[in-house]
Amino acid sequence: MSTHQPPFRLPAADPERTARLREALLAASFTADGLLDLLGAPAYAALARSETVPALRATRGESPLETLVRLFLLQRPTSYERAAAALPVEDCLADGWLVRDGAEVRASVDVRPYGGPEGQDWWIVSDLGCAVGGAGGIGGPGGARGGVDRSQLVLGVGGASTTLAGLTVPTPVDRVLDLGTGSGIQALHAGRHAGRVTATDRNPRALGIARLTLALSGAPEPDLREGSLFEPVEGETYDLIVSNPPFVISPRSPEGSELVYRDGGMAADDLCRTLVQRSAAHLTDGGWCQLLANWQHIEGEDWRERLASWVPSGCDAWIVQREVQDITQYAELWLRDAGEHLAGPDVYAARYEAWLEEFEARKTKAIGFGWITLRKSGAERPSVTMEEWPHPVEQPLGDEVAAHFDRQDFLRTHDDAALLASRFRLADEVVQEQVGLPGAEDPEHVVLRQHRGMRRATKVDTVGAGFAGVCDGTLSAGRILDAIAQLLGEDPVVLRDRTPESIRLLVEQGFLRPVENGGDGGV
Question: pTM surpassing 0.85?
Answer without folding.
Answer: yes
